[in-house]
Amino acid sequence: MTSKIIQSIKSIASLNEAEEKAFLSILEVKLFKKKEFLLQEGKICNKITFVNNGIMRLFYNVEGVENTIQFFFGDSWYTDYASFLTGKPTIENLQALEESEVVQFKKEDLYKLYDSMPIFEKVGRIFAENAYLSISQLNQMKTNEEPELRYINLLKTRPELVQQIPQHYIASYLGIKPETLSRIRKRILTSK
Amino acid sequence: MTSKIIQSIKSIASLNEAEEKAFLSILEVKLFKKKEFLLQEGKICNKITFVNNGIMRLFYNVEGVENTIQFFFGDSWYTDYASFLTGKPTIENLQALEESEVVQFKKEDLYKLYDSMPIFEKVGRIFAENAYLSISQLNQMKTNEEPELRYINLLKTRPELVQQIPQHYIASYLGIKPETLSRIRKRILTSK
DNA sequence: GTAAAACGTTGACTTGAATCAAGAAATCAT
DNA sequence: ATGATTTCTTGATTCAAGTCAACGTTTTAC
Questions:
Q1: How many domains does chain A have?
Q2: Which residues of chain A lie closer than 8 angstroms to B81, CB-CB?
Q3: Do B174 and B81 belong together in one domain?
Q4: A26 to chain B, minimum CA–CA distance in Å?
Q5: With 80 as the cut, is the pLDDT of residue B190 above it?
Q6: How many Cα atoms within 13 Å fall on the side-chain side of residue B177?
Q7: Could you tell me the pLDDT band of residue B192, with boundaries at 50, 70 and 90?
């Protein structure tokens, strides 16, 4: 259950036996059923989540409209870093789209590791750096690419995503209405 | 020249005398004239910059169109973290809009500090965390707010910015054309 | 000081996505 | 299995920003 997360951490920084043991001791494995929430707006995000398998959707509400930020499949990390770092309530909702298995650990426990074993300070830094890189990539995609191009790229780079996730969620992820995505799809099909 | 940056670092983590000295030893003060570039697309960003005073504009080109990301005034930090971390060429351009004084240090030197003095690993972590927070805030603003609302909020929260920076750059920052900003301004004025 | 360049405003027109509405297709719950 | 709900598609219309073009104003460079 925890082998994948250990592998992922070790790709960040090599851990000796004691360090690995310390890390393992703070982990908690959890199962979420379809439609269950791992995080809901208003709550404080004080955990880091590693997705073993399943599918999750991350979104937030703006004036009653759901704004999809990202989808998570197996072998990916998630935390609302803003809430995690500031201790303020999150605006994000993370919902399982399929039954999913995750491994989590608490901020509290991570900060103890920061203080007791210097290597984890490094892990934390690289963690934050990776979080930055992924948000900045997402950012760039969103601001630079037209919805139609983004959809075409999505088809190329993550076809499994397009297949497994309802279209109206993908539309929301692309920042357009379902009707518009439907028309984009039609346009792509007929132009081939 | 370096008192502000030291103060800023100390607000992240307290440094003892040796640590402060080590940090000071890697700093370099630089002056940039109006229109000079601190960073240009295609180059690799291997520095972190602290702005003592002046005004800078950060932008990148998409198909010949400049896309303004942010403005920097005194007491602010800048690095293209993506290029800094990955070592890949940047797409960002950082240009002085007024004569500006900055303090910089090299990635190379920072990484030596990471290895020689553990406190800097912590500084690096908090740095990355702050970078994440600011990009995520910017992100949120951009995706949630209509250009007109964003402009009104900008007037409220950073009036000095609106006054000191040419409108077409502000338009670019808001993600709209100068003509549109001009019309928004007219709308706001006549509605008062 | 003056010519050139950059900047800002306004009008007419175009365009791409949103909205509203209705119906078809797929999925879910019992 | 079947009725209910959700999801997807299509058409007609609206709307906000973009585009193109012209012109007045401000700033810059020499």
A1: 2
A2: 129, 132-133, 136
A3: no
A4: 21
A5: no
A6: 3
A7: low
